[in-house]
Amino acid sequence: MMRPSPPSWTTEIWERMRRHFLLKLFGTTAFTWVFFLGYFHLLRYPAHEVVVMPLTALDHWIPFQPWTLVAYLSLWVYVGMAPGLQWTLREVVVYALWMIALCLTGLGLFYAWPTQVPALVQHHSDFPGFALLRGVDAPQNACPSLHVATAMFTAIRASDVLRRARTPMALRLFNIVWFLAIAWSTLAIGQHVVMDVLAGALLGSVFAWMSLRWRPDPAAEMRRVAPRIAPRAAAI
C-alpha cells in the first residue's frame, strides 16, 4: 500500500492554522491576560529593592525611535503565530506548557531580582499610543526582557514549522525579520537596554531548545493527520 504523498506547503500551513483554531485563539488570549495579572502585580509591588540596569556603549549609540512602537506592540500578534501552526491537540498543549514555563521563569526572576532601565533612556513622545504605554507598562521588570524572550521562543518554533512544511525562503526570512524588528523596538523606544535584550534572547533560546527536544514527535503527528488532509487537498 502506497503512503499518501505529503501535502503542498500551502495546504499544510492552511490545515495547521485551521485545526483547533478557536482553542488556539482563545487559549492564547486567556494566557496573555493571566500573564499580565502577575506581571503588573510585580511591576507595582516589587518584593525587593529595584536594581537599575547598566548601560553599554551600544545603548548610547541607539537613537530614540518612537515609530518602532508599532513593531513593539506587534508582539501580541506575533506570539500567536507559532501555537497557531501546531498540528495536533497534543502539540498545542505541550507548546503552551513550555511557553507557560518560560513566562513563569521570567516572573520568578522579576520577583527575585526586580530591575529597571535608567531614567536617561526613558524618553517621552507624542507618537500615538506612546503615552499609554508609558502609563501602563513602566520600564521596570527589565531583565530579562520577556518581550524578547517570548519573541525569540516564537521565532525558533515558527522557523521549525516553516522549515518542516517546506515553505518558500521568503516566509522564513519574514519570520526572522519580524522577530528582529520586535527586539530592536524594545531598545529604540527605551523600554529595555542591551543587557535586557541579550538576557531575554538567551532565556527564549534555552526554552525553545528544550521545547524542541521534549515534545510529541513531529513525524508521528504528521502521519496521524495526513490521511485526513489528502481528501480535502484533492477536492481543492
What does this 3D model show about the protein?
The protein is an all-alpha fold. The protein has one domain (21-45, 57-219). 68% of the residues lie in helices and 2% in strands. The chain is built from twelve helices and two strands. It has helices spanning 9-18, 21-44, 57-61, 69-73, 75-78, 81-84, 89-112, 130-136, 146-164, 169-188, 194-213, 218-235, and strands spanning 51-52, 115-116. It has a two-stranded parallel ribbon with strand order 1-2. α2 packs parallel to α7 (89-112), α9 (146-164) packs antiparallel against α10 (169-188) and α9 (146-164) packs parallel to α11 (194-213). The longest helix is centred in the N-terminal third of the chain and has 24 residues, at 21-44. The chain is elongated, with a radius of gyration of 20 Å. The mean pLDDT is 86.
Quick structural gist:
The chain is mainly alpha-helical.
List keywords for this structure.
single chain, elongated, 12 helices, 236 residues, 2% strand, mainly alpha
List the SSEs and their pairings.
Elements lengths: L8 H10 L2 H24 L6 E2 L4 H5 L7 H5 L1 H4 L2 H4 L4 H24 L2 E2 L13 H7 L9 H19 L4 H20 L5 H20 L4 H18 L1
Parallel strand pairs: 1-2
Helix pairs in contact: 2-7, 7-9, 7-11, 9-10, 9-11
Helix residue percentage: 55-70%
Radius of gyration based on Cα positions = 20 Å
First-last Cα distance: 24 Å
Strand order of the largest sheet: 1-2
β-sheet strand percentage = under 5%
Topology order in helix (H) and strand (E) letters: HHEHHHHHEHHHHH
Alpha plus pi helix count? 12
Shape: elongated
Structural class: mainly alpha
Q: How many strand segments?
A: 2
Unreliable stretches: none
Give the total of domains. Answer: 1
How can the largest sheet be summarized? 2 strands, parallel
- Average pLDDT confidence is 86
